[in-house]
TrEMBL record, chains C, D:
It is found in: Cell membrane. This is Sugar ABC transporter permease. PANTHER family: ABC TRANSPORTER PERMEASE PROTEIN YPHD-RELATED-RELATED, RIBOSE IMPORT PERMEASE PROTEIN RBSC. It comes from Sphaerisporangium melleum. It comes from the Bacteria. One of its GO terms (cellular component) is plasma membrane. Residues 1-26 are annotated as: Disordered. It is a multi-pass membrane protein.
Length: 337, 500, 347, 347
């Protein structure tokens, strides 16, 4: 299972589109596929979608759920189009296997907005995502600075076959190598499974009791197992203690924020479930209204970049959350009830 | 015996075959002359079936060689080569339960080459079955057949090959009188056509009826080969058992009418199998139930012990009314039984003799539900000794036993709890003369100890130990015959000729 | 696995369209036909429900989609069904679905697009892909038949090894620089229907005819029913089993090829988790895990039932939160329906 | 499933390659014991390899880790092994691992922490969790024994339904706000060893003694080996099977409880995908899918083998890219080793 929680931005909705105002909700029905419903992050996203659709006045079809399975995604999209969707929002967790579907949608003149991932191939109207490489880099920089360039770090990798996991792993590894050669990194393959991470950390701590940093690529999956294990080893101590293990996470779920407040972990990269939902729907609507966009800064703290071949990507910011800014009410994790 | 110049049709020499510590055949052999019907006899576990599997190319002997008409047998991998030489009815079923009767008959030769024509295959099969007097629809699933029908199917299939040499390993063990007669007619006709046959049976009178010569195995070794006519019955038994022995003598017994009833059936009815059957068995009494095929006797016995659920009527064991279809309650009321199909209901093949035999008394072999292995072993060793089971010990899995010895384990299980009511169905099917005596003796012993027994069988020999025999015909009890009947009399009743 | 065994299908009528049973009487063939059709009521119910929920359900487009989406699954089910009928097991099929096309592609594309750098002629790609499927099948057969290892564990090990190899040599990357030949079958339409649907139909027809009407096909049933008896009857059991495994590998590679074409890339996880669904479809379709029982037609019905359930749940827009519970519940109900309509214990 | 048939017809030589018996008498017990020990060489090899790769491997700490990390798996394997020996199947255990603690927790925590709002007394949480496991087992038994549905499909359906229910009522959220009682067993240490290791040891000891030396335990073997014969010998097969399913459900819930405590939360996907590993361990440990064969000690060895392999791969720091291929390869090799040392065909 792939607990990919990813995205970017953290600041909430700066409204106002980069061009053109609202206009009447013409256009037609928007179909949306949820990638999964069994992680906190995507559940928040799933909750924001209908809310934002109402705000934007969009005629949203009942969302489908592809349960992290690209074959299901493909059949869901086919079902949505046969039910009359005029624009599609999706979050393909497998970025290669969606190419043909995108071509088919293109031939039917149905614009597609993808959230969280950028398809390897095929036409999209807009990609709304945070830069996953930036997650890895931010985590690397944070750990490197806290550890002052030396020490031992355990990294819970996601699944190699997930692009987000791979991006984070690669960026983390490159940054470590380039900037902090004094830090030894133990990359643990976990397939996004908490049990695997827990076992790997336990084994590694036995082998190297002096481990002093942990990077987990998904707080939703790894936070509780890690804390539980460290608790049982009495390793949850304030940063001033030499035994302190610096922990940086990705996701920004409420439990991570709580853990930061309580000093159990040190930082996380928050992904913007709300702005994902908001801007994805916004662009879907804009596409139906015939609007177009160009690369450049937007009015909501992000940049639209051309990632090649005229494909546009709105790169939402993903802030690093530490003790200093953990109470920012704009973080999506602070808005979840 | 054959003339020295003639080349024998089949020849196996110096065959040795071991299974682990068991030596199934030790330097044994057989020579069968062209066109004769040759009997192979021996006690359970003597190695007969092992020789069969070697003669049909299913197993490789450790040493020794097999020749057909002077030619060395084909290599093991060449199944077609073997099948051209020999057809066989194996002792263990080779019917594939998930396929139809027709397909089982023509397995691997359903068509000449092209696609299979199921309609014609079925009609060919029906013809073949008619020819052998087997009343089974070729379209049925073989798994739905009963033991006897399956046996007939095996025989029909083996005979249908047109092979010049046919092996029949205990073909009659599961058959009733008329079916055996039909088989013998068939065998005689084949012999007239010059077909060579090897015939295995524990019914020595059958050997005298259809065979010309006989080979005796004892303890994995060849003992003698002789013309049947030159070998009187007693000598044959002596050769098999290694000692002189007389036929089984039923013991005299008197049951008082005051003896308590141990087993009663009242108005027992099961649609299509038996109707309104009343039966009372007293302590110390053995009641036989006879009847020709499909008379309902087995169904009745199975309903008595709880293997089948009757539609109406009651069964009472030692004053306790048993729950229909609940074997455990019958056993707890003091019943022991031997089922007809030992492979299906008789034993768990992977488990040891000890465990199989003591399964119904497991609760008595220790406290708090524990089973003491040493007490189990002790009980099992006694059973092995009592019934003369040929085995390496109580820990041997039942699946490694020869057919007759497995049957004895089933008997041991039935007797394990010193039952006061005993129901045995075809107890001597496939067991050798001595074992038969042991098994019948065990039933009589139980009766002497005060048990009442029901013995279901087609074997007139078995029925002789009964104090009275009730005869069933078309699902009803038509007559009760007291001890001292004559064969012809009983058979007449069974066949419905004399249903006064 | 030996559950309340009951005699059943498999019967001479591998296929349902047989001559009428000889007048009256308890007839195995009749029962077999029943068993075969056990899922038909469930399918009808699903179609009615689908039409009621969403008119678009009955559109030719949607029905074609349902069929096309099930093609890869149905090829795998075909492969697994044959192996199960022969009394064995193959879990590794799902990995072959990924590995065979991945290796086929990687051997022919340039290293720059994540190829292996061998740069074999592109025309060899598809044949290599199919060949790899057969080799995997042959390797399974070797371990199971020659070394007498348990089919379950061998293929479980292979499941992991093959997937691991694919992740290993692709580094977990999707391959998307596909040669045209890999895309063709998954996308082409012949006579108005997707090519993959035709391929599937032909494969099933061939399977049904072979297993129903040819000696070697019947041998598969015989081996599954009682391998010793089959051997005694002169069936070359080993040779038949080798063929079965190799054909299954080939079918799995073909399924992988179709999936590659349909999705336009080879994902590192292609086929991952499918084997569960494959077993579900086969067993719901009446294939027994004990071997010797079941028909390919039944298995195909099993695939259709699952496909229809999926499609209807999607069309109905069931909430993401409860979709799985509802899906499982419907499978259980379909089962009971099948049980009620045939009145037979299952195994 | 009927592989290399053993109890077989066709010939007295159903099993052609019997191992030479341990010195002297052909002895069933001896053979069984051999089979039991089949994995011991593999375990020894792994230990030697582990020690060579990394001295820390042999530290008491690390070995304790290996044990603790396997506790949940081993409880599931225990449950599955008993069911397999009895000749049935249970795929739904992995969902019970998630559902039972999730429901237990959700019923006692306040709605604000994602509870169901029932706010039952916290003390009831753990008993409820275990009770749920037993209820799931009983429901499986009901469908399989009373309605005579196929165990494979019933539990496959239940696998999906139970997971779906968990996702449904938690909305896919992990439950973090756990009462202390749920954390205790997964974290406590008794006499220097993790409590979960003791629990496991006791469960296995009880299982081994019961299956080896108690009437009801032997009945499980008898039912798996030949249910008809067991019934004919007076074994109340249905009652035994009910007990087996309920106990298995209980063990799965217990495993879920331990996992919840160890990981400090109930993930929506807790237990997801474990059933594969469960089967792998059981079958590698010599449990036959045909029923009636195998021992719990063997199954435990299977768990240990998998645990050691995992631990060594982690210690060795094998690259993520190749770890799966290597893992699968080692499993295959361990298998062959087991085959060589016992000289028996597997099934
Ligand atoms: N596969 C086997 N494994 C172990 N022992 C075997 C096997 N097959 C046969 N035996 C042993 O070999 C001996 C000879 O068995 P065989 O079946 O040939 O006897 P038989 O003469 O046919 O007896 P019966 O009259 O009871 O059928 C027996 O002691 C039996 O236990
Ligand atoms: N499983 C069954 N279901 C329904 N009817 C059966 C079944 N088995 C047997 N019968 C029928 O029940 C009737 C009585 O069978 P039963 O086996 O009790 O007779 P039997 O006296 O033992 O005959 P045989 O000597 O041929 O075994 C027969 O007509 C038989 O065809
Ligand atoms: Mg014999
Ligand atoms: Mg009978």
């Amino acid at each position: 299972l792939t607990l990919t929680a990813c995205g970017s931005s953290g600041s909430s909705g700066t409204t106002a589109p980069s061009e053109g105002g609202s206009a009447a909700a013409g256009g037609g029905k928007v179909g949306i596929d949820f990638p999964r419903a069994d992680t906190d992050f995507w559940n928040s996203y799933n909750k924001y979608v209908p809310q934002m659709a109402t705000e934007l006045g969009i005629d949203l079809m009942p969302p489908t759920n592809s349960q992290n399975d690209v074959a299901k995604l493909v059949s869901n999209v086919q079902a949505l189009t046969s039910q009359g969707a005029k624009a599609i929002v999706m979050a393909p967790q497998d970025t290669g296997a969606i190419a043909t579907t995108l071509d088919q949608l293109d031939s039917k003149k149905i614009p597609v907005v993808t959230v969280d991932t950028r398809p390897d191939k095929g036409k999209t109207f807009m990609v709304v995502r945070a830069d996953n490489r930036a997650y890895g880099e931010k985590a690397c920089k944070f750990l490197g600075d806290q550890l002052k360039g030396k020490g031992k770090v355990v990294e819970f990798q996601g699944s190699l076959s997930s692009v987000n996991g791979r991006d984070r792993s690669e960026a983390f590894a490159e940054c470590m190598k380039a900037n902090y050669p004094g830090i030894t990194v133990f990359a643990e393959p976990t397939e996004w499974e908490g049990t695997k991470a827990s076992a790997a950390l336990q084994t590694r701590l036995t082998q190297h009791p002096d481990i002093n940093g942990i990077y987990m690529q998904a707080g939703g999956a790894f936070l509780a197992p890690t804390l539980q294990l460290l608790k049982s080893k009495n390793l949850i101590v304030p940063p001033t203690d030499p035994k302190h293990i610096f922990i940086v996470s990705n996701d920004g779920i409420p439990q991570e924020l709580k853990a930061i407040r309580e000093g159990q972990i040190d930082a996380t990269v928050s992904q913007p479930a709300d702005t994902y939902a908001k801007w994805a729907l916004f662009y879907a609507k804009a596409a139906l209204e015939g609007k177009t966009f160009a690369p450049g800064a937007t009015d909501h703290d992000s940049t639209i970049v051309d990632v090649g071949g005229g494909r546009l990507e709105d790169q939402l910011p993903a802030p690093l959350v530490t003790k200093d800014n953990v109470d920012d009410p704009n973080l999506w994790g602070n808005q979840v009830k | 015996m054959m003339s020295p110049s003639a080349i024998p049709a089949v020849e196996a020499r110096n065959i040795t075959k071991r299974f682990g510590a068991t030596t199934a055949l030790a330097d044994a052999g057989i020579v069968i002359a062209e066109g004769e019907t040759h009997a192979l006899v021996g006690r359970n576990g003597a190695g007969k079936s092992t020789l069969v599997s070697i003669l049909t190319g299913l197993q490789r002997p450790d040493t020794g060689e097999v020749r057909f008409a002077g030619q060395l047998a084909p290599p093991l991998a060449d199944r077609d080569g073997w099948r051209r030489q020999v057809a066989c009815v194996y002792q263990k079923s080779t019917i594939i339960p998930t396929l139809s009767v027709a397909e089982n008959l023509f397995l691997n030769r359903q068509s000449a080459g092209g696609p299979i024509n199921w309609r014609s295959l079925r009609s060919r099969a029906n013809e073949l079955l008619d020819q052998y007097g087997v009343a089974v629809d070729a379209g049925r699933m073989a798994g739905d057949l009963d033991v006897e029908q399956r046996q007939l199917l095996e025989i029909a299939r083996a005979l249908s090959f047109g092979a010049r040499f046919i092996i029949l390993d205990e073909p009659t063990a599961q058959l009733d009188g008329p079916a055996i007669e039909r088989l013998f007619d068939r065998m005689r006709a084949l012999r007239e056509q010059g077909v060579t046959m090897m015939f295995i049976s524990h019914h020595l009178e059958e050997v005298y009826r259809v065979c010309q010569s006989v080979t005796v195995f004892r303890d994995a070794r060849h003992v003698l080969t002789s013309a049947v006519d030159d070998l009187p019955h007693d000598e044959l038994v002596a050769a098999m058992t290694g000692e002189a022995a007389a036929g089984y003598q039923a013991r005299a017994r008197t049951t008082s009418t005051a003896a308590p009833t141990v087993l009663t059936a009242e108005k027992l009815t099961m649609a299509g199998r038996f109707q309104e059957v009343d039966l009372t068995v007293r302590a110390g009494e053995i009641v036989g139930i006879a009847g020709s095929g499909s008379s309902g006797k087995v169904g009745l016995a199975e309903a008595l012990v709880g293997l089948r659920v009757p539609d109406s009527g009651t069964v009472t064991v030692n004053g306790t009314r048993t729950r229909p279809g609940d074997v455990a309650s019958a056993l707890r009321a003091g019943l022991g039984f031997v089922p007809q199909d030992r492979h299906k209901e008789g034993f768990v093949p992977l488990l040891s003799i000890g465990e199989n035999a003591t399964m119904p008394i497991a609760h008595k072999l220790g406290r708090f539900g524990a089973v003491s292995p040493s007490r189990r072993r002790a009980r099992a060793e006694k059973m092995i000794e009592d019934l003369a089971i040929k085995t390496t010990g109580p820990a041997q899995p039942v699946q490694d036993l020869s057919g007759g010895n497995a049957q004895k384990v089933v008997m041991a299980r039935a007797l394990a709890d010193d039952p006061t009511a005993l129901v045995v169905i075809d107890p001597t099917a496939g067991v050798d003369v001595r074992a038969k005596q042991a098994l019948l003796g065990a039933v009589e012993d139980a009766a002497e100890r005060g048990a009442g027994a029901v013995l279901v069988s087609d074997e007139l020999d078995d029925l002789r130990i009964c104090d009275r025999v009730v005869v069933m015909f078309h699902g009803r009890i038509v007559k009760e015959v007291p001890r001292g009947w004559a064969d012809a009399e009983l058979v007449a009743v069974m066949e419905g000729v004399d249903a006064r | 696995m030996t559950e309340t065994t009951v005699a059943s299908p498999g019967s001479p009528g591998g296929s349902p369209d047989k001559a009428p049973p000889p007048g009256g009487g308890h007839n195995g063939l009749g029962l077999a036909r029943f068993r075969d059709l056990a899922l038909v009521p469930a399918i009808l119910v699903l179609i009615v429900v689908g039409a009621l929920i969403e008119p678009a359900f009955l559109s030719a487009d949607n029905l074609t989609n349902v069929l096309q989406q099930q093609t890869e699954l149905s090829l795998l089910v075909l492969a697994e069904a044959i192996i199960l009928i022969a009394g064995k097991f193959d879990l590794s099929l799902e990995s072959t679905v990924g590995l065979a096309p991945a290796l086929g592609v990687a051997l022919v594309i340039p290293a720059a697009s994540n190829g292996l750098g061998t740069d074999l002629p592109v025309a060899l790609g598809v044949p290599i892909c199919l060949l790899i499927g057969m080799l995997v099948g042959a390797f399974n057969a070797l371990l199971i038949l020659r070394f007498k290892l348990s089919a379950f564990i061998v293929t479980l090990g292979m499941l992991i090894v093959l997937r691991g190899l694919q992740i290993g040599f692709t580094g977990g990357q999707n391959l998307f620089a596909l040669p045209e030949s890999f895309l063709y079958l998954g996308n082409a339409r012949w006579l108005g229907l997707p090519a993959s649907v035709w391929i599937c139909a032909v494969a099933y027809a061939a399977g049904i005819v072979t297993l129903g009407y040819f000696r070697h096909g019947r041998a598969v049933y015989a081996i599954g029913g009682n391998a010793d008896a089959a051997r005694a009857a002169g069936v070359r059991t080993d040779r038949v089993m080798w063929t079965v495994f190799v054909v299954a590998g080939l079918l799995a590679a073909l399924a992988g090829l179709l999936m590659t074409g349909r999705l336009g890339s080879v994902a590192a996880a292609q086929g991952d988790g499918m084997i569960f669904t494959v077993f579900a479809a086969a067993v719901i379709g009446g294939i027994s895990l004990d071997g010797g029982k079941g028909t390919l037609f039944g298995a195909l019905c099993g695939v259709l039932v699952l496909g229809l359930i999926n499609n209807i749940l999607t069309l109905a827009g069931v909430s993401a939160q409860w979709i799985q519970a509802i899906y499982g519940g419907i499978i259980l109900i379909a089962l009971m329906l099948a049980r009620l309509t045939t009145g037979k214990a299952q195994d």
